């Protein structure tokens, strides 16, 4: 059997006890009229009460001064409100003297006082509105799910997450800013909250709250006692974030006249605002401007809270106890007396512990029972308002669970894109018309940012306290739901989604969202199957991208942060979507009109800008996906990138037509190589043209000497370094732009590229010899870095920089084992921990241990801001910062120590050497073309890479003369080659091409040629490195071929003519 208990003020009959002459009930009394009847909800006004039953009937009792009982007279006993005899009331809320009710058909009714337009009927009036009347503007489609009433204002929440307000605005309690009339007579949507997934609304005397599904609290209105929890006493005319409780996992809020109460996921209670009657429960009468936890309730798991005008209730079902504190003059504390209480006291009654519905587990094992009554009851729900309190209970044998305010009630919460919605979609047959329910759900959820932002939240409340570090989204759930929609047999489902997104959602997205929770959809929507189809680029995908681009700085930073935390596969999906759009637009047939041209240009621009944002995030986030995942391989076939580069150079990056050179990350290695060589040709042509001009002038002006159009170096093999230095030192800047030719003294080979390749190989091999001491060799990584203790003049580093530039300009790869940090510095990018890890893995490992250490860093590591380096056998102590020897490394400054260490190794200690190198490099490879490269790409341009594909080498080989793929000599040659070790294969590559590394374009760029030669099997194979041409005698014996080939590759230096 169920029972309703009540206590508190009864002077107007608001407890419904009928014939009682008492003005108050100081402890709970049973309301006999509802014994055995199931209660839907009870709501209390200042001096009246509404009671809704499960059967849909509504009862009222108490004062009827303003017609708030929905009938002619006041009543001391609950009487049926006749206006709802044909409807089922499911939701009620009481203001001081007015009421709102919602029926099962989602119709909204209002009655009572309307002096400030709180009934939302269109015009405020001083007449008594005793008859509940339908509130226009709300229908079944708008679907009201919650209502809350302040003294003279009303707040309404609909299923699409919209908040509507009406009534008194004298303190800003409507959240509408400055209103000339100080009120609203009709419900108006609170647009500044659009997009937020609202989980609950609440209203106090003259203030209001909205709580999101992830526990973000917004308050507005009167704040003279700090009841908004903002740390001050200023009223707020707009919803304002309560920052102090953002991470407290708030699940429920309720309000008194001038105080507020919060319930957390763990069952904790915070109170704030007016405390003069003890209603905050902090054992004092002080006001609190910020939410403060009720200390005496700590250790108990509270699952329900309720506020009266100046008192508070809290239910701990595992103990079977209700605690009360605050004003007690009308007996509203239920303690048996009328004293105020400023700390939690127990409400007297025959209560026994209950089971909590879906609440967190509790360690509270107390099972005390108040046995002063012969009968025992389990408390299901507590209610309060004005100076009265109610309690809905049940006998233990009914096994009725206590309600938990921390959990969402399905019919009173935001619509989200969940399995129920999608299963109804999937159930529609292929050729059937969409049921109205399915159409309505799809339209609501895909037109409402709030619905989408509240969808796919992480389970177990891990979405609570959303922040830059926690978006709260379950991407696996999102992908599963969207896959179900994709597989729905009825194509009208997708048509409905497309139309709703295009016509309703995308045009409504704001530039400045109200909070982090309002931008989750930017992570969620791209997983919708619609985004996989680039046909929708102009209507959905690119307008969605434009919304991202248009977001204000704060929202943009959050999106970037969230993107940086995505899994590789999820991040790559975003990249793929907009790469597909670019390819789709470029492949479209010729535009028929100017409008179509503009649409395509807009689509390209938006797609490229989104890709730029993603690339920037990827580049700064330690590469979530490989940088080459941004390559658009089709670009070079669809766009004249040479012309694009020339226009880009001439326009100097100014606005106007889109240039792909402003988005170099989409160029693959082949495209960038083409651009680099285009720049090289432009630079060289300018230099050559200048030479020819001077040569022509010399015919008429004898003082001008003819100049060679090539940069020719004459090198003696016995003095490669010195000859190079001497000759490069005599060249001017324009000479470095000329094509490089190398002549080895005493050798006949003409330089068609092969001699030049060998020259670089020999030169760098000698320069890197330890005898020069220019570079420090790191054994653990087998890499080199500038030696800060070298005796060599900076001009040597300058010339090495020139050589690196010449190698790039002349399409020659060289063996220079620098870490990627060098190329980062050349491109003016910061050097980070990963770069230290590449050069000095052991040191980086120790640094990581320092970062990860959780105990006393100072005691464990005994470090200060000093680095010890070897200086010709002697240890040298170098301070990383001023007075570093006297500054210990601690947990607080360890990041500073590591940054200073990295800065010393890569920057400060080698500043002179690197600047000289950089200056030399820029002499040849300066200019905007360098801006197109990623450090790894620039590295591959200089030193090539070791991504060997020996099968590709064999597949692309060509044959001359009588040789062909199935010739016996060729067959045994490749058999021998396949059996060689990797080291031997690399030596063969060096022998034949002049380098043991391959260009950035891959092995396909190393095309080799094999031709027969005269003589017998006693002759060695001969390489023409200029042409990658191998003279291969007509071997018939495999072992003989192996012997002669290996002999030849071991003698790979020197050129000769056959």
TrEMBL record:
Chief localisation class: cytoplasm
SUPFAM superfamilies with a match to the protein in the record: Hect, E3 ligase catalytic domain (SSF56204), RCC1/BLIP-II (SSF50985)
GO molecular function, one term: ubiquitin protein ligase activity
Domain HECT: 732-1058
RCC repeats: 2-55, 56-105, 106-160, 161-214, 215-266, 267-318, 320-395
Location(s), subcellular: Cytoplasm
SMART domains: HECTc (SM00119)
GO biological process: protein ubiquitination; ubiquitin-dependent protein catabolic process
Keywords from the UniProt entry: Cytoplasm, Repeat, Transferase, Ubl conjugation pathway
Record GO cellular component, one term: cytoplasm
Protein name: Probable E3 ubiquitin-protein ligase HERC4 isoform X2
């Amino acid at each position: 059997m169920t029972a309703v208990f009540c206590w508190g003020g009864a002077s107007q009959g608001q407890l419904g006890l009928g014939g009682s002459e008492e003005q108050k009930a100081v402890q709970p009394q049973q309301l006999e009229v509802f014994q055995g009847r199931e209660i839907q909800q009870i709501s209390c006004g200042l001096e009246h009460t509404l009671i809704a039953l499960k059967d849909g009937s509504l009862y009222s009792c108490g004062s009827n001064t303003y017609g708030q009982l929905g009938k002619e007279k006041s009543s001391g006993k609950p009487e049926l409100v006749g206006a709802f005899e044909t409807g089922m009331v499911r939701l009620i809320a009481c203001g001081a003297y007015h009421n709102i009710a919602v029926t099962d058909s989602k119709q909204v009714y209002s009655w009572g006082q309307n002096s400030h337009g709180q009934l939302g009927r269109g015009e405020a009036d001083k007449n008594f509105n005793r008859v509940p009347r339908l509130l226009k503007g709300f229908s079944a489609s708008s679907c009201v799910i919650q209502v809350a009433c302040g003294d003279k204002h009303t707040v309404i929440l609909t299923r699409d997450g919209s908040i509507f307000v009406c009534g008194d605005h004298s303190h800003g309690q409507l959240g509408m800013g400055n209103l000339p009339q100080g009120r609203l007579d009709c419900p108006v949507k609170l647009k500044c909250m659009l997009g937020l997934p609202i989980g609950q609304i609440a209203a106090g005397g003259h203030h209001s709250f909205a709580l999101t599904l992830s526990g973000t609290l917004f308050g507005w209105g009167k704040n003279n006692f700090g009841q908004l929890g903002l740390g001050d006493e200023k009223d707020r005319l707009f919803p304002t974030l309560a920052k102090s409780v953002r991470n407290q996992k708030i699940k429920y809020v309720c309000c008194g006249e001038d105080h507020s109460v919060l319930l957390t996921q763990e069952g904790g209670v915070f109170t704030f605002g007016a405390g003069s009657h003890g209603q905050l429960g902090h054992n004092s009468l002080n006001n609190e401007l910020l939410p403060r936890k009720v200390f005496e309730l700590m250790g108990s798991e509270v699952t329900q809270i309720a506020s009266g005008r100046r008192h508070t209730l809290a239910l701990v079902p595992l103990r079977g106890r209700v605690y009360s504190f605050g004003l007690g003059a009308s007996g509203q504390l239920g303690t048996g007396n009328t004293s105020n209480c400023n700390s939690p006291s127990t409400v007297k009654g025959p209560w026994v512990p209950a089971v909590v519905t879906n609440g967190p587990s509790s360690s509270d094992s107390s099972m005390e029972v108040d046995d002063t009554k012969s009968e025992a009851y389990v408390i299901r729900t507590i209610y309060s308002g004005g100076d009265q309190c109610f309690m809905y209970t049940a006998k233990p044998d009914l096994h009725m669970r206590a309600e938990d305010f921390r959990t969402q009630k399905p019919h009173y919460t935001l619509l989200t894109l969940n399995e129920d919605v999608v299963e109804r979609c999937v159930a529609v047959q292929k050729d059937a018309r969409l049921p109205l329910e399915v159409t309505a759900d799809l339209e609501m959820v895909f037109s409402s940012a709030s619905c989408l932002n509240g969808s796919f939240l992480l389970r177990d409340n891990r979405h609570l306290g959303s922040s830059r570090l926690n978006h709260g989204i379950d991407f696996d759930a999102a992908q599963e739901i969207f896959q179900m929609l994709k597989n729905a047999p009825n194509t009208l489902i997708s048509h409905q989604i497309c139309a709703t997104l295009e016509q309703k959602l995308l045009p409504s997205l704001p530039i400045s969202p109200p909070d982090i929770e309002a931008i989750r959809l930017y992570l969620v929507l791209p997983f919708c199957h619609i985004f996989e189809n680039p046909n929708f680029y102009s209507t959905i995908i690119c307008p969605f991208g434009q919304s991202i681009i248009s977001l204000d700085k704060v929202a943009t930073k959050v999106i970037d942060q969230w993107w940086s935390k995505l899994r590789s596969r999820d991040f790559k999906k975003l990249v793929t979507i907009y790469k597909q759009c670019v390819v789709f637009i470029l492949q479209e047939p010729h535009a028929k009109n100017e409008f179509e041209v503009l649409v395509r240009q807009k689509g390209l621009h938006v797609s490229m800008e989104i890709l730029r944002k993603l690339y920037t995030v990827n580049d700064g986030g330690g590469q979530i996906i490989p940088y080459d995942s941004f390559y658009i391989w089709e670009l070079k076939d669809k766009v004249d990138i040479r012309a694009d580069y020339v226009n880009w150079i001439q326009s100097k990056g100014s606005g106007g037509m889109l240039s792909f050179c402003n988005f170099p990350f989409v160029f693959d290695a082949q495209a960038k190589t083409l651009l680099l060589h285009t720049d090289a040709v432009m630079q060289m042509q300018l230099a050559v043209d200048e030479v020819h001009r001077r040569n022509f002038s010399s015919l008429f002006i004898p003082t001008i000497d003819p100049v060679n159009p090539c940069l020719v170096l004459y090198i003696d093999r016995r003095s490669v370094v010195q000859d190079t230095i001497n000759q490069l030192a005599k060249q001017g800047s324009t000479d470095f732009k000329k094509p490089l030719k190398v002549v080895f003294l005493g050798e006949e080979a003409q330089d068609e590229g092969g001699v030049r390749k060998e020259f670089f190989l020999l030169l760098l091999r000698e320069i890197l010899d330890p005898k020069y001491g220019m570079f420090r060799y790191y054994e653990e990584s087998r890499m080199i870095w500038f030696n800060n203790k070298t005796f060599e003049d900076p001009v040597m580093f300058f010339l090495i920089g020139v050589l690196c530039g010449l190698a790039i300009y002349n399409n020659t790869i060289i063996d220079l084992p620098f870490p990627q940090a060098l190329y980062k510095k050349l491109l003016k990018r910061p050097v980070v921990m990963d770069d230290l890890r590449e050069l000095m893995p052991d040191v980086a490992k120790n640094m990581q241990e320092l970062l990860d250490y959780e105990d006393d860093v100072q005691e464990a590591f005994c470090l200060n801001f000093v680095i010890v380096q070897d200086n010709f056998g002697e240890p040298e102590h170098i301070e990383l910062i001023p007075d570093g020897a006297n500054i210990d490394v601690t947990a607080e400054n360890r990041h500073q120590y590591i940054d200073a260490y990295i800065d010393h190794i890569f920057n400060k200690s080698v500043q002179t050497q690197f600047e000289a190198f950089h200056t030399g490099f820029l002499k040849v490879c300066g200019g905007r073309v360098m801006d197109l490269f990623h450090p790894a790409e620039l590295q591959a341009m200089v030193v090539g890479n070791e991504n060997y594909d020996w099968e590709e080498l064999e597949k692309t080989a060509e044959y001359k003369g009588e040789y062909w793929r199935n010739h016996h000599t060729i067959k045994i040659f490749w058999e021998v080659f396949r059996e060689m070790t990797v080291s031997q294969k690399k030596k063969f590559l060096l022998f034949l091409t002049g380098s043991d590394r391959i260009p950035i374009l891959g092995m396909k760029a190393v095309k080799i040629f094999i031709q027969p030669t005269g003589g017998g099997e006693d002759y060695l194979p001969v390489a023409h490195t200029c042409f990658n041409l191998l003279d291969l005698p007509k071997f018939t014996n495999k072992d003989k071929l192996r012997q002669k080939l290996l002999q030849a590759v071991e003698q790979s230096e020197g050129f000769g003519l056959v």
